[in-house]
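Sanity check record (used in CI):
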Amino acid sequence: MPEFKIQHVTKYTYEGLVRDSANQIILFPIKDEYQDVIKQELHITGNPVVDTHIDYYGNEVGSFTYSDKHSVMLINSRLSVVTKQRPLPVNDIFPEQQWEYLKQIQYMVPYIDFLKQEYFEGLPDLQEIVNKERLMDETPFQIALRFCSYVYQNFEYIKGVTTVETTLDEVWKLKAGVCQDFAHILMVMLRLLKIPARYVSGYICTHSSAMRGEGATHAWAEAYIPDYGWLGIDPTNNCIANDTHVRLAVGRNFSDCSPVKGVYKGSSGHKLEVAVNVEDENGSPYEDKAIHDAPVLQAVTELSKNSYQRYMEIVQQQQQQQ
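Expected output for Transglutaminase-like enzyme, putative cysteine protease:
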């Protein structure tokens, strides 16, 4: 059972002094038979009291308010977590029985939210792809892996081309994005076949250069498989999410699982920076990672550009470098 030490730093830098910063954090890993939190330390600028509760989807959520005037706010989470490898689904039930079971549960409360899909302009096109990619004799498990591979092969992984506010239509037009965009597209494909699908936020804990998503929070999807339960699928890396994926929260989409969000009084201009550092059981002790070397979410002034504009700028930069 691997043990990982994870440091997650979130830094807000404001253009002027602000106050009454009210925030919600979902930085507390899920605790179940496959994931156990050994220790967690949470340090926040001003040392505010953090009240916690369990939300509708079973996530531990913290809330705090920092009332004093400040120009910088730092949220530093350090934790040690042990994961256990999950067994994979066994295809020992006829496909027809599994699809019939999914029909029976689609109106049951635990699954309804994970089957609803908001309309976007690209939905009819994606429906055609789903119909084409689906093989009628395959099980939901096999279909989920096929769709995962489709997203991985047909969407380009480009950091900075999208933000948390990017719509499905923009992602569909770009055919590019990062882990949260890949997860959202995969969930749509699964839901179109009435397979319950939910969004997962967390960390990927591997030092493999072939794996995407290190150095920041990661996201993937979970599909509900009959006679098995929720199966994690990572379309960003075209793999099953197992003991190297540490889960923070689950929900209908990114909005339900956002690690940090909040409001404040003061200047509207601010910059958000996020850094994640992972060490395994053989790694060195925690070292504060320099926040200025971390992947940075673009400043508010840059977020006013739409995704397509950012995409074209990135393409132009790459062409100039060649």
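DSSP finds nine helices and 15 strands in the chain. If this sentence no longer matches the regenerated tokens, the check is flagged for review.
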